[in-house]
Amino acid sequence: MTESATLAEVFDELADSYDHGHHEEIARALIAWADPGATARVADVACGAGAVALQVARGRPDTAPAVLAVDLSPGMVATGRERSVGLVPVGAIDWRVADAVPLPVPDHSLDVVLCASSLHFLGRRVMDDWLRALRPGGRVGFTLPLATHFRPSERFTRHISRDVPLPRTAREADAWATACGFSGAASRILDLGARRVAVIAANAPAGS
């Protein structure tokens, strides 16, 4: 079984008992920080049960493009679809079961890429793919758990990418985003009690 298939299986098993409240709080903070706007072409990468996609899609004008919500877990995508009924208009979210890398979009076709609570599973390669998918000057927003407060279970530990350094401070988060090729990185720390999360926003190079 491939790494992607194994991780999909782990999240499939969690789909019915996912901590929606926790992830919705992170999604609210990420959207407020990255500020995607009402009509941007947005992708929610490794969307899980759709906390980010649902909040972005809610209240957008009918003419706005559908929010692309991608996850490798069929169970999570199914849960997201179920949660969307009555919350957003039909077609406001384009749900896809797919690997996060590469995103199923043409080069430079997105205005904003958002990724909550998942980058440390995806690996450094996803940053290069976001630069490919974003238009010049496009925006990225993502979260990472703080190294000082991250206590994953053994089951999740084996899936964490070794090439994504978990930051200890907002400054470290900014420095890593910059090292990955983004500009104007700005981070804040979200305090969730026993858990703390870095919320980072940055821009693709204007000339990419």
Report on this model:
This protein is an alpha/beta fold and 208 residues long. It has 8 helices and 7 strands, in the order H-H-E-H-E-H-E-E-H-H-E-H-H-E-E. The chain has helices at residues 3-14, 20-34, 51-57, 74-84, 119-122, 125-133, 154-157, 170-179, and strands at residues 42-45, 67-71, 93-97, 110-115, 134-145, 183-192, 195-203. Strands 3-2-1-4-5-7-6 form a 7-stranded mixed sheet, sandwiched between helices. Helix 4 (74-84) links the parallel strand 2 (67-71) and strand 3 (93-97). The model has no long low-confidence stretch (mean pLDDT 89).
Helicity, as a percent range: 25-40%
SSE string, helices as H and strands as E:
HHEHEHEEHHEHHEE
The secondary structure category is alpha/beta
Model regions low in confidence, pLDDT < 50 over at least 5 residues = none
Count of runs of 4 or more consecutive helical residues: 8
The major beta sheet can be summarized as: 7 strands, mixed
Shape: globular
Beginning-to-end CA distance, first to last residue: 36 Å
Rg measurement, Å: 16 Å
Estimated share of beta-strand residues? 15-25%
Number of strands: 7
Multimeric status of the protein: single chain
Give the overall average pLDDT: 89
Order of strands in the sheet with most strands = 3-2-1-4-5-7-6
